[in-house]
Design goal:
Layout lengths: L3 H12 L3 E2 L8 H8 L16 H13 L4 E5 L2 H16 L3 E4 L4 H4 L4 H4 L4 E4 L9 H5 L7 E5 L12 H14 L2 E6 L6 H4 L3 H5 L4 E5 L10 E5 L1 H13 L8 H13 L4 H16 L4 E4 L7 E6 L3 H15 L1 E2 L6 E2 L4 E6 L9 H14 L2
Helix pairs in contact: 4-11, 13-15
The protein binds pyridoxal-5'-phosphate.
Pyridoxal-5'-phosphate binds next to helix 4.
Length: 365
């Protein structure tokens, strides 16, 4: 296992590098606040407990973009999604909610759905694959809601095919199951489906999106759904302490992110797919999935992190290029990395990335 000191050194040394493959440039807090100034209107007040032009207009804008009646801006996706599932479970009078074993709810939220909301999780689908219609048809428990994540982060950004997704939406409708979208990274899905965000989101009864990942905001999320769903979500937001007096910096940053990064998402996806091919050409690096549909993919290297990472650091310092973040998961013999492509990768030509990746692959042997 890597020591905490190594991790801190790795992050700080790599932050000095000239080029990076990892998502967006890291900026100081001052620079980040500066980026918001152009979006801030000198005649507009901050919203108060969720009421005000800035937040309410933005909620309408995103609801329209995603084809839902209403939206609610919240501090986090963790707060948003369990609340959505609680609302559906109350409406359907059934505490069973279903999601994939690698869902954020199962892995990263200390089981808030169970501990706070008294909901029962039903795990559906194979660990390393997207959920399939047959998994749903084989469910032996009745459920009130099904959460589907697009793209599925923990398995390298995989997506189900469009027909499959439509069939799952139809299955949910027929069974009276609420179909909820974990769209933390939904922004990158348009090019794979060749459908608008609105069309994709319209398959779902409720949707959560994030503003601080691909869109580079400060923090913040939005829930989308029909008016009555969002009214109930506003009550849960108050109950859970998420109805803050103001979140105007987060809202401004989200608006900046929508303007700046959403139009470039297809470029990020294309660049990710090109760069993924270069990694695939290295016999000591495994790409997951083999054909990344989004701007996200995973890499597996058959070396323990302690053995591998000093070589990665050495190469990065020498080249002044950051290719890998710290490993996301490790076993005794493998290290797995998550690559999300954004603005940073666009700063080098494809051939330059190809050369760098080849040199990297040789350096870590
Ligand atoms: C797929 C997915 N869902 C939900 C969340 C929760 O988002 P937040 O950090 O805003 O709570 C995350 C955060 O990483 C995520 O990756």
């Amino acid at each position: 296992m890597l020591t905490e000191t190594f991790k801190v050194d790795y992050q700080s040394i790599l932050s000095e590098n000239q080029y990076s493959l990892i998502r967006h440039p890291v900026r100081s807090t001052r620079a980040r606040l500066g980026d918001l100034l152009d979006e801030a209107d000198s005649n507009q007040q901050a919203e108060v407990y969720g009421q005000g032009e800035l937040v309410n207009e933005f909620e309408k804008e995103i609801a329209q973009l995603l084809g839902h009646d209403a939206g609610l801006f919240l501090p986090s996706g963790t707060m948003a999604q369990v609340m959505a599932l609680k609302i559906w479970s109350e409406e359907k009078q059934n505490t069973n909610i279903a999601f994939h074993p690698t869902s954020h709810l199962e892995l990263h939220e200390q089981h808030a759905y169970r501990e706070l909301y008294r909901l029962k999780g039903v795990l559906v689908g194979q660990h390393d694959q997207v959920i399939k219609l047959s998994d749903l048809q084989n469910l032996s428990t009745e459920i009130s809601a099904l959460l589907v994540e697009l793209p599925m982060r923990e398995i390298g950004g995989q997506l189900p095919g469009w027909d499959e997704l439509e069939a799952q939406s139809k299955w949910a409708k027929e069974k009276g199951v609420a179909f909820h979208l974990d769209g933390a990274r939904l922004w990158s899905c348009e090019s794979y489906y060749q459908k608008s965000l609105k069309k994709i989101a319209s398959l779902f009864d409720s949707v959560y999106v994030s503003f601080y990942k691909d869109l580079d905001g400060i923090s913040g999320a939005m829930l989308l759904g029909n008016e009555s769903f969002i009214e109930k979500a506003r009550i849960w937001l108050r109950r859970t302490g998420g109805n803050l007096i103001t979140m105007f910096p987060e809202i401004l940053a989200a608006k900046v992110g929508i303007k700046k990064h959403l139009p470039k998402m297809q470029d990020y996806v294309k660049k990710a797919q090109t760069i993924a091919r270069y990694f695939e050409q290295c016999d000591n690096i495994k790409l997951i999935p083999v054909n990344p549909p989004c701007n996200l993919f995973h890499l597996v290297i058959n070396q323990q992190d302690e053995e591998l990472m000093p070589k990665v650091l050495e190469w990065s310092k020498h080249q002044r290029v950051t290719l890998l973040p710290l490993p996301r998961t490790c076993t005794l013999s493998t290290s797995r990395f998550e690559i999300t492509v954004g603005e940073n990768a666009l700063k080098l030509q494809d051939e330059q990335w190809q050369k760098l990746i080849k040199s990297f692959s040789q350096a870590i042997r």
